[in-house]
Structures are given as structure tokens and as C-alpha cells.
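Standup notes, protein team

Yesterday: finished cleaning the Nakamurella flavida set.
Today: ROK family protein structure.
Blockers: none.

Input for ROK family protein:
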Amino acid sequence: MTGGSGGSHRLFPDARVLRPTTKRLPQHTRSHNRALVLQTLYSSGTQSRADIARITGLTRAAISDLVGELMLEELVVETGPREETRPGKPATLIELNRTLFQIVGVDLSDADTFTGGLLDLDGTILDREEIALDGGTGERALDLVLQLCERLVARASAPLLGIGVGSPGIVDSQGNVETAPNLGWTDLPLRTLLAERFDLPVIVSNDADAALLAEFSFGDTDNDMMLVKAGRGVGASLLLGGAPLVGTMNAAGEIGHVVAGSAGAPCVCGKNGCLETWVAVPRLTAAFEHRGLDWRTADGLSAGHDILAEAGRRLGLVLAPVVAALNLTDVIVSGPERLLSGAFVDAAVETVQLRTMRTYTGDLTMRMTTLGEDIVTRGAAMTVVSRVLGFS
């Protein structure tokens, strides 16, 4: 899964399934079954111990042991007896303590503004903050990230589970930003810097990786899917069989610097005509402005229809072999909806279908995310929940 101006951080280096649904055999770890109980309560709501045993396939003794442990940690609470119409002692219901922790989620993918939120375990944004980038790069951009996190941490009204950051660029499994050209970062140990500053668990991931996790957790599908993130740069994330696709060099899904045709403008990476030069939001905005148009207005958007159609066609050129090779039917687009939801998406789908066998790609659905501009913030927070608590 990659995004931003390119690259990838694997949220889960072992590419484990994000949402456990079946029990493990005795030789597997207790932590999986613990996560399975939490996932069941997170997804299914209030349940009895017997309900959880039935859903998970774990024994009642194992459930009693795990629930007891989780209750001691206050992650699970009893809510009282179930209303029963049958004779006998009613079952005691339990639920996830969704207000126990809060999480800081930070989105660094926008060209002009760093944004963040304070969220609960359900991914609800309780408070928001933003800070203007004003062209800042390098140390200045890092200082703005620290300021943003500091403000959000100070507003927490419950213990913080951690800080999640979605960054453009290549981010390794340790949370180091190997390169983020648009921010002027190279080999930046962002996770370490934030963890030392705030003494909290910190997960730094690529912005498209974070967006995909948000879509998986809160969106309209849990099928195999690809998410294309258009913002400061362009990138994609892939989820196959319930697990992130990793790739040998942690770069599966890297599309932003694939050359999308023979013509094209110079790219920050040194090549000409990379997909980013066609689809990144600043590039699209500049193309509109070059013709005296503003895509934020109805007239400007209509007059620039051909700009968006061409950008969508270039995306389709890059996506066609990926969609065909992986037999994908669900592609989600994240970015400014007004800009990308019409001519852009239509042209992308048409191009994919023209360049592949419709027998296998005729059912392709490419749509805008329903999570709007908060997708990276919510996904960054969920990387913390998934890594620390084991569910999503």
C-alpha cells in the first residue's frame, strides 16, 4: 500500500489479516484470541459471553478467561442482564468500553494544511485542529507537525492510546520517512521523534495506507479493494484477502511515479509524465488556472471537463494492468470529491475497460470514498487501534 508522493509503510509487516474472524489452534498465540474477542465486540456490539463463544468458536472457558482479563484492564465492561422471555437466569451482557481511550490522528497529505483530530475508539472525531503549511518544508514542516500534535494531545479528555500519522512519501516499517520530496524530508525518524516528545505509542504510515484502513474500518466494503489517494501526490493501497499487499520492497501499489504515457510534464522524481504530474491535486489546479478556470465553481468545472477526463484516462492507463492482474472489482478514490467524482472517474473506468477483457472487468466499480476529507485522519487513528489493541 502506497500513497502521497510515493512509497509505502506496511501497517502490519507480517501482512496479517486486519480483522480476525476465526479462532486459532492451540499452537497459536493468546493475543490472537484476545483480539478476536475485542473484534467481535467492536463489530457486533453488546453480547453475552455465550454469544461471543458461539461467534468466535472459542470455548466458554477461554472466553471467560479472556473477558476477565479485559475487564481488569477496563477494555470490557458489563452492562447488566439481558431481557429474557424464557425462564432461568438471564445472561450478563458485556460491551467494549469505547470511551476508555482517545487517539490523535494526523493527516499530512494536503498541499497547504496539516490537519488532525482527537478521536474515540469508534473513529468519531471529537475535536479538530489544523495548521497552515505556508510552503514550509524540512525542519519547518517537522516543527508544524510537532505543534499540531502538541495542541491535540493537550485537549485529550481521556487517556491517549497513541498518535497515528498519515504522511506522504515512502515510510518504512519503523515509521521513518525515507523520502517525502514535497515536504523536503529524507530519512526522517518521525515516529521516534514523536514518541520521545510525547511518551506515547506512535504509528507513522503512508497516507494512502491510512486511508485504506479507514475505508476498511468505516467504509462501504470489506472486499478486495484498491484505494487511490489523490492529494499533494498520488498513490494507492491494496487489500487482498483481508490483508494489506506488502511487496518485496514494501512498495506494492506504488503508482504515483509510473509514467502514464509518452507526453507529460517534469516530475519531482526526475522523470517526465509520471501519473502524479497528471492527477495530483496541485497539478490539476494549475491546469485549470492556466486556462483561467476555477474548478471550485460550476462553470469552471464544466469548462475544464477535458482536463479531468484526460487525467482520468492517464489513471486508467496505469490501473488497467493492475485491475486485470488482480481481478479487482472495487476501486475507491480519495481526494476532492468535486474535482474527481465526475469526468475523472468516468474516464478512468472507461479506459480500464477498453484496455482489458470486459468479461473480467465489466463489473469494475470505481467510486469516491464516503468518508470525505477525514479519511486519512480517521485511518491514522485506526492504525494505532489496530496495532495496539488488535482490531479494526
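Follow-up from PR in the comments: The radius of gyration is 22 Å.
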